Amino acid sequence: MKKWIPTAITLALAAVPLAAQEPHYGLGIVLGVPTGALNSAGYPDGQIEGYNSGLGVQFTVSWPVDRSLALRLNVGGVTFDGTGSATGQANWNVEDSLISVGGEAEVFLGDGSAQRHLGTYLIGGLSLDMERFSASDYDPAYFASSEVTKNRLAATVGIGHTFRSYGRYRWSMEAVYHKTLTGTDANDYSGVGFPAADFVKLYVGFGF
């Protein structure tokens, strides 16, 4: 326990300058477009599962460090549903409900301003994903549902733009790729598959 105390103090001191800056808040909706195994995954027993595009929300708090750099907290969630199939069996429903808490850096390009959160910016960071995978038959009377929860590390990288406005609020758009880094073994399967949650996250929201 003692070895963590200096680290905690260092992080607390590093956060003081950020706390002194005026943060920018963002809130909006997310469209998640599955890629890779989340789009379609096969398992050793011959089963195949694929997920459709999902909807969710995203909330951010961004602290400017200087004119071109900001650090932000990103909290959001998205739910994907889809279909599983296997030879000689009726199809079944699958769902992945994902809640993500992450830290990201925003690097503003050209005339962009982190202090005003305006212009084009690059995004990159890490997140902790808390996911619940479930499977159930179209008729629950004939197929008992099953569920698996996973906590996994993910990386995000993308680009965004915040548009000028004449009032307090500003509109932002982002295109970010979300990549699961841990817990992606496709052979670890026990009735519910949990493929890597790799997807393109399209965000539209407002900042204030």
Evaluate the radius of gyration.
Answer: 20 Å
pLDDT averaged over residues: 86
Question: How many runs of DSSP E, i.e. beta strands?
Answer: 10
Distance between the termini: 39 Å
Could you name the CATH topology?
Answer: Porin
The percentage helix is 10-25%
What global shape is seen? elongated
Largest sheet: 8 strands, antiparallel, barrel
The CATH class turns out to be: Mainly Beta
Estimated share of beta-strand residues:
over 45%
Written as H for each helix and E for each strand, in order along the chain, the element string is: HEHEEEEEEEEE
Provide the low-confidence segments as ranges.
Answer: 1-5, 7-16
Q: Supply the number of structural domains.
A: 1
Helix-strand makeup class: mainly beta
**Biggest sheet, spatial arrangement of strands:** 1-4-5-6-7-8-9-10
Can you tell me the CATH architecture? Beta Barrel
Give the helix tally.
2
Describe the structure.
- By secondary structure, this protein is mostly beta strands.
- The chain has a single domain, classed as Porin, CATH 2.40.160.
- Helices cover 10% and strands 57% of the residues.
- The protein has two helices and ten strands, in the order αβαβββββββββ.
- The chain has helices spanning 4-20, 36-39; strands at residues 24-34, 41-42, 48-51, 54-64, 69-85, 92-108, 119-137, 146-162, 170-180, 199-207.
- It has an eight-stranded antiparallel beta barrel.
- A hairpin with a 4-residue loop joins strand 4 and strand 5 (69-85).
- The longest helix has 17 residues, at 4-20.
- The chain is elongated and about 60 Å long.
- Mean pLDDT is 86; it is low at 1-5 and 7-16.
